[in-house]
Amino acid sequence: MSAPPKERPKVPDGHAAYVTTKQMQPNEKGFVGYETTWEPWHKEVPYETPKKP
Length: 53
Prior knowledge:
mainly beta
């Protein structure tokens, strides 16, 4: 029998409502990590001083 391949298959990017994951390149030890990018779901509004009565 032949040995299994030592490299991991390429995984497509994962998309969810507010997060995207991408597979990173393997390092020198062969570890394959994933990069996670979070999208903000709160809108930040600049503060305005209230009017004086």
